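Consider the following input, taken from an annotated entry for YlxQ family RNA-binding protein (Lysinibacillus irui).
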Amino acid sequence: MMNQAIFNLLGIAARARKVISGEELVVKEVRNGNAKLVLLANDASKNSSKKIQDKCTYYNVEYHVIGDRYDLGHATGKEARVALAITDKGFASKLSSLLNEN
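Applying the prediction step yields:
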């Protein structure tokens, strides 16, 4: 139930064009300071997970591991996605509060 609310909000953010998807683009957004929240699939490769988690930690960006690559892709209306960056502060804070309740 709670995960469904998270994925629904993620879909709304994607339609508002406030979501960046793809490992390299997410790392770039974190580096540039545009990423407010990063979501990572739990079935991402160890290398990808470490890279994104290290970047988020270094640049002080909140990140969460949630769902698998197909869940994240489906929520944003795309194919499988391993990493998503939320670029809007409002969407990021709401998603963060939902994720932290879980």
